UniProtKB/TrEMBL annotation:
Subcellular location: Endoplasmic reticulum membrane
Membrane topology: Single-pass membrane protein
Positions of transmembrane segments: none
Reaction equations catalysed: a hydroperoxyeicosatetraenoate = an oxoeicosatetraenoate + H2O; prostaglandin H2 = prostaglandin I2
Similarity comment: Belongs to the cytochrome P450 family.
Listed name of the protein: Prostacyclin synthase
Any one biological process term the GO annotation gives: prostaglandin biosynthetic process
Length: 500
């Protein structure tokens, strides 16, 4: 940095110091903490490791407080009994779109004319439920077989080595891409499937480069080198997902058809449509792979859990007429009757799902807390719920909350456990990996089916093991709080082979 620039920065900072009238807490408002750096407040600490920062603030101020983060006053609520009061407020009071629009523009360069998120959601919703969900689930199994079994067969017999994160993320994203965006040709031929494998691998590798830059991109802290890379990666993705290129694909999902129609109706240009499709690739595919990674890793690290899942699976599959190795789809009744696997999935998500649930305060209002207190919120501030800390990792709700217990969501008789308490009161929502209220995940059913199919496919068709059995579960990449599923700081090597 040159001296002139440094001096300029110092002068600007000084000016800021003099100009900012420090906000003070008014009667009835939550505790206010502006930190010691003018304007920035706690932005650096928040960006570095949001969970530790918010835990520290909770110890200092309790479960509601307001902090200054990069010029914005953010009121944080960490009492899960009080979340309902926030997530169902109408948009005129607490708006849930402006932050999404900000991310959409900043990260994906998407600007839609006459953008109405409610309308968009209403159109998308039916394409991810009921009969369409069934069609997606079936297509997903076929595509998982294409990429997973196809790749492995192509590589030849014997053991293959790979990182478990790479393994889970790439196969789920590639199959997910083929399921939603269509395949090369129908009926499938060996040639078209080879094409599906290489094209989807190209999409994954390009997507993953963007995914890695995402936290920095969202905070606006990319280096010059990062920026170059990002531009190249984005334009490559826009080409790969260009509507003209997708037009010739077969077996496109009704989700894609209806989304493209919607974009056309609101008059979105061809170029902007490609960008919107890249945004959707991230929204739909960014979490399944990481979720499957943690699930498989917890199973590999907990032999008792793995044995319980295997026993349940063998029992369930033994009731089917056809052996699993010959099935071209997994019957929904099999997927729906795996309570141990459900508990394992929910436990994995409890430990690793860390989305921010945010709202913009549109008018001055009084927020009622579940314990009877009421707090005044100021127009223009932002609200933040962080279920990762509570309920998900709250020691009052879960004993040893940081420990993976595969049967945490099962009663001793094997039925689903639903009673969890805080402050002596039963919780309605004790884990919120899918978000809450108005913006709950629409793809939940499809995501759950897909992850379960992937795990079943891996457990029935492969031998899979950790290369070093006593490897420790990696720490989180701490820059990713807020985006959804956490990713590991580094990958975990495994070996796998087709079981014949
Ligand atoms: C493990 C996998 C997944 C997790 C943990 C997850 C989680 C979430 C969360 C937390 C939100 C709320 C975001 C917000 O607050 O704005 C969300 C929204 C959404 N998800 Fe998922 N998701 C997953 C997979 C999927 C899949 C596979 C699809 C579709 C095929 C999907 C479609 C959507 C859509 C369309 C929304 C937007 C809803 C809105 O506009 O408010 N998700 N997801
Ligand atoms: C797991 O969570 C899903 C919803 O996210 C729920 O429908 C299901 O009943 C839960 N199952 C268990 C065993 O906890
Ligand atoms: C919690 O679950 C109940 C239904 O069990 C639902 O009505 C409510 O909106 C949920 N609250 C949140 C914050 O998701």
């Amino acid at each position: 940095m040159s001296w002139a620039l440094l001096l300029g920065l110092l002068a600007a900072l000084l000016l800021l110091l003099l100009l900012t009238r420090r906000r003070s807490r008014r009667p009835g408002e939550p505790p206010l903490d502006v930190g010691s750096i003018p304007w920035l407040g706690y932005a650096l600490e928040f960006g570095k490791d949001a969970a530790s920062f918010l835990t520290r603030m909770k110890k200092k101020h309790g479960d509601i407080f307001t902090v200054l983060v990069g010029g914005r006053y953010v009121t944080v609520i960490l009492d899960p009994h009080s979340y309902d009061a926030v997530v169902w407020e109408p948009r005129t009071k607490l708006d849930f779109h402006s932050y999404a629009v900000f991310l959409m523009e900043r990260i994906f360069n998407v600007q839609l004319p006459h953008y109405n998120p409610n309308d968009e959601k209403a159109k998308m919703k039916p394409t991810l439920l009921h009969r369409d969900l069934q069609a997606l689930t079936e297509a997903m199994y076929t595509n998982l077989c294409t990429v997973l079994l196809g790749d492995t067969t192509e590589m030849g017999s014997g053991w293959h080595e790979m990182g478990l994160f790479d393994f889970s993320y790439s196969f789920l994203l590639r199959a997910g891409f083929l399921t939603l965006y269509g395949v090369e040709a129908l009926p499938r031929t060996p040639q078209s499937q080879a094409q599906d494998r290489s094209h989807s691998a190209d999409v994954f590798h390009t997507f993953r480069q963007l995914d890695l830059l995402l936290p920095k991109l969202a905070r606006g802290s990319l280096s010059a080198g990062d920026k170059d890379l990002m531009c190249r990666v984005k334009s490559r993705l826009w080409k790969l997902l260009a509507p003209a290129r997708l037009a010739s694909r077969a077996h496109r999902s009704s989700w894609l058809e209806s989304y493209l129609l919607h974009l056309e109706e609101i008059g979105v240009s061809e170029e902007m449509r490609a960008r919107a499709l890249v945004l959707q690739l991230w929204a739909t595919q960014g979490n399944m792979g990481p979720a499957a990674f943690w699930l498989l890793l917890f199973l590999l690290k907990n032999p008792e859990a793995l044995a319980a899942v295997r026993t349940e699976l063998e029992h369930s599959l033994s009731q089917e007429e056809q052996p699993v190795l010959q099935m071209t789809t997994l019957p929904q009744r099999v997927l729906d009757n795996l309570p141990v696997l459900d508990s394992v999935l929910n436990e994995s998500l409890r430990l690793t799902a860390a989305p921010f649930i945010t709202r913009e305060v549109m008018v001055d209002l009084a927020l009622p807390m579940a314990d009877g207190r009421e707090f005044a919120l100021r127009r223009g501030d932002r609200l933040l719920l962080f279920p990762f800390l509570s309920p998900q990792r709250d020691p009052e709700i879960y004993t040893d909350p940081e420990v993976f217990r595969y049967n945490r969501f099962l009663n001793p008789d094997g039925s689903e456990k639903k009673d969890f308490y805080k402050d002596g009161k039963r919780l309605k929502n004790y884990s919120m990996p899918w978000g809450a209220g108005h913006n709950q995940c629409l793809g939940r059913g499809y995501a759950i089916n897909s992850i379960k199919q992937f795990v079943v496919l891996v457990l029935t068709h492969f031998d899979l093991e950790l290369i070093s059995p006593d490897v420790v579960v990696p720490e989180f990449d701490l820059s990713r709080y807020g985006f959804g599923l956490m990713q590991p700081e580094h990958d975990v090597p495994i070996r796998y082979r087709l079981r014949l």
